[in-house]
Amino acid sequence: MPHPVTQQIEATYRERTSRSAKLHQEALRHLPGGDSRTITYFDPYPLYFAEARGPSVIDVDGNAYLDFLGNYTSIIHGHGHPEIVRAIAEQAARGTAFGACSPLQVALAEEICRRVASVDQVRFCNSGTEATMNALRTARAFTGRNKILKMEGGYHGSHDVVEVSVAPPLDAAGPAEAPTAIAEGPGIPDEVIQEVVIVPYNDASALQAAFARYGDELAAAIVEPMLGATGTIPAERDFLMLLRELCDRHGALLIFDEVITFRLDEGGLQAVYGVRPDLTAFGKIIGGGLPVGAFGGRAEVMALFAPPNPRMIQSGTYNANPLTMAAGLTALQLLTVDEIARINALGESLAEGIRHALLEVGIAGQVTGIGSLHTVHLTSQPVRDYRSMATSHKEAHRLLHLGLLNRGVLSAKRGMLVVSTPMSHSDIDRCVAAFADALAELKPLIQDEAPHLLLSG
Predict the structure, then answer these.
(1) Active-site positions?
(2) Domain 4-76+336-453 bears CATH identifier 1.20.200.10
(3) What is the structure's pLDDT at 146?
């Protein structure tokens, strides 16, 4: 029998969302699991949204939510920003795709190169997955090597070589200082897994040991300067500096995955840390809400793609399509240094408010992140890597997510909260209040099932 708190939270959710429940049942007939995006599912069934505007989304039952998810960080200017809508509409009237070059790709490439000091040249694709896939393939071609190094818990999209040790079960993940490379699911060849070296995030000793063993076989090390899907866990600067030094010493390329973190500074998180990668993968905000990806870096490396005799081919029917370029260029132009600073400050306010709420309610928790991106972890341990994040109480997290939905706040089911430019201090206050209320509702379950999370006194 489920805990009374579980029954109460789920019953409230079902009462509010009957049309979503019906749509989910219909979707199950034609879509495996009812969707085309694994991450959008949650128990007892996912929400269906009908419309969105500014910082809010509205579900098919008419419930409004403050959107602290932003399509997993991509909708940085909220929904239906008039300037982005205008740019899309004007370009759509002129053409959506030409099978040829367009001036807009030059303008957006120029803007990205202007902002990011490490990027001399850039190429566009259609997703963050494609961006990291192409960056890694480029590194292999440039170095003539096959192995890559990635972080345990690092998510870089859904191509084979990076779908390794993203969220491995701890009982199969091997020793913390030298994790075992584990496929994220079936369908990934063993030969691919053997080419991936896994290192714990923020562990300098383990990083040095990995390079001592495999350094001269590595084509690249790929890293998020802040782990995204694992819980917005920032890198320690010394760790990134060491990674840069080791890549240089062993002739491997350093790739930063800034698909999520590019929003945190005009030059990306690499500018904040002062660490310069050889290649960078982009996505999310550079498309203005439309599908997009890009990768770029040193001119010497990117020259592999240069006509008339390119060593590498990178094509795609919708690469640099003018609709996405128009939306992305407008989105970046709107994302000024002042706007980045403002939403980063709002994000830090949100994090502090949640930390205070955890203390007030008397439940142990951590809040990790930087600026406009933070994640709540229901654990008493400091969170600095995948394994410390994995100590969070999973059922409490699930119910906290539902509890926030019941109070009109949309967050990621993993606890991530994302601030967008239409938001104000009043939105932050509403989110903190909803969080405190949802946490208080959850406390009896934690008392019964995870008493170690209760704060004494």
Answers:
(1) 155, 257, 284
(2) no
(3) 97
